[in-house]
Amino acid sequence: MRYESLDIFLKDGADLIAKGPIALIFAEDEVEVASTLRHHLGLGFKQVILFAPDEITVPQGVEAQVLRVRHNTRAVNMLSTTVNRIIAATHGQWIYYCYNAEYLFYPFCETRNIVDLLTFHSEERRNAMLTYVVDLYAGDLNAYPNAVSLEDAHLDRSGYYALGRAGTDGPKERQLDFFGGLRWRFEEHVPKDRRRIDRIALFRAKSGLKLSENHLFNDEEYNTFACPWHNNLTAAIGSFRMAKALKANAGSTFDIHEFTWHNSVEFEWQSQQLLDLGLMEPGQWF
Asked: Which residues of 155-173 are buried (b: 16+ CB within 10 A; e: fewer)?
């Protein structure tokens, strides 16, 4: 089903997003839009909503399974503006957001759906879940000049680290800034405010909740990686977005001839690999 604008969608499609979890997919270009939609449909979201301009095409069989909203995904502050309007319309529902060529993984996602995950997380009195954005990239840039290939996907197996998130009176409790991947290895080409790889991509909507452009919420508890008592579930988003940007940007593309290095490994498209690399954890969920 198609909607001509976000305003029309929030008016006419309100009943369709009355029950979550809901996935918001923002298509910035045509790269792997269909595979992104298929992946998240397969995880069991009640609704998958594609925000995209008209020029982005999607196979009819895939588009028939999602809600599509005409949207300028390159507008200034697009992400926060759009997500915050969805939050205001979906009180109490779980929301997930990502861009095209990004793929959500969580512990045991091959056998447990997203409803199972969020039911357990809710029982632990958590209203948000930390996700690490793990950079994916093609191993052969000559064969895949836009750095995107599902068959030749690689990721860094090490080089990740965290720093305490600064507050007014010292580091914030249970909050860290995480770094690594291409944003770390090619940081000279990445603005300082875009180098973090942490994103609270799964969260429960509530009145007054606001997302900022740097992927943080106005409720500090939403930005924590765990509760005060024990470690909680975390998830990961395999993302080609940074690799695409580094090869599309004229200021970086000619300086980068390959993304692979001695710590690159092939991405197996399995949650166990991400668990083994410490890029997400099951907490108390077994």
From this structure: bbeeebeeeebeeeeeebe
| Burial class, 194, CB count within 10 angstroms (exposed 0-12 / middle 13-18 / buried 19+) | exposed
Is the full-model pTM beyond 0.90? yes
> In the numeric block, which tokens belong to residue 199?
């994103």
* pLDDT tens-digit series, residues 199-232: 999 999 999 999 999 999 999 999 999 998 888 9
The answer to whether 210 touches 223, Cβ cutoff 8 Å, is no
- For each of the domains in the chain, give its residue range(s) and CATH number, in order of start: 1-100 (3.40.50), 101-286 (no CATH)
Helix (H) or strand (E) holding 52: strand 47-52
CB atoms within 10 A of CB 208: 8
Tokens of residue 223, six digits? 């930005």
Q: Is the peptide bond before 191 cis (omega within 30 degrees of 0)?
A: no
| Cα distances (Å, whole numbers) of residue 118 to 13, 21, 22 | 23, 8, 12
What is the DSSP code string of 218-241?
A: SSGGGG-SS-SSS----EEEEE-H
